[in-house]
Task: structure prediction
Amino acid sequence: MAESLTLPGFVNAHSHAFQRSLRGRRIGGDFWAWREAMIAEAEKHTPQTVRADYAETYREMRAAGYTAVGEFHYLGLGEARAAADAAAEADIEITLLLSAYARGGSPRFRQDSPADYLAQLADLRADGIRVGCAPHSVRACPADWLEEIGRHADAERLPLHIHADEQPREIEECVAEHGVRPIELLDRSGCLGPRTTVIHATHADDRELDLLAASGARVCVAPTTEANLGDGFAPLERLRERGIGICVGSDSNVRIDPLEELRELETSARRSSGRREVCDAETLLCFGADEGAAALALETWPEIEIDIGHRSLRGVDRADLLDALVFGCAAEVVVSGP
Ligand SMILES: [Zn+2]
Result:
């Protein structure tokens, strides 16, 4: 057997597996137009199609070195169980981040009330599925939903994941409705704490980042998706200055490659800062593994092997291996499967 390097498995802290089918589709002039096509795609699914399609996507993740996934799920309860079954088939650890959706989107995304949502969550837990609370966004959940779900997550010590500050329009709408920005609303609604992960935070202002830091919340970035959708890029330096934990997700699954997520996070920050090292490779790999596991409340998750005889690593000194991995390799260096 060729020489290999053992690393903690990568943790994909934010995935919508059904969006994998949109890869390569030239749709939508901006995020909002893309979103229409995405919703149409979501509406096609049944538990049977989720079971088959997600298993393929999770196998692709596993081959790329992700050994755990946080599936941010809003397709319905039967489909949530099917996603958990698909993950088991593909041998990837799953945390089912069941989305709460009060308004907008597609009717199939929605529950009637926070109590209805919490009953669905309890159903999944009763089946032995690891879950987290996931109010979709401040667009989809009004303040009373956020308050009730935030209280529940806190009482049950469950992860709470929510999209925020991905697009400027979402911030404008939140200010118009509530008089505060999205992360300020999360703070006011009791949704920020050490088990909270805010997805994106692309356009968060300094006060919002201060609130994240004070509460111990994390940010999950999805650089390849954020690039593809024209969202912008994560404020890496401002997150780091405040000591905010960062993890990564493949989100829309336009790409499934943890090394590319980490590289794009860092190189976007290099472009804007004019510096060569905003985060070192060890720190980036920690974002890709340990921080993601913490965001999903995982204590253990499988390791991976890197093929250090791979041609992408030819001529690289042993001491430079981690840097070469992050800055010079694609996920094909991961030795796939036992
Ligand atoms: Zn998302």
User: Anything to note?
Assistant: The first strand starts at residue 4 and ends at 8. The mean pLDDT is 96. Residues 47-63 form the longest helix (17 residues).
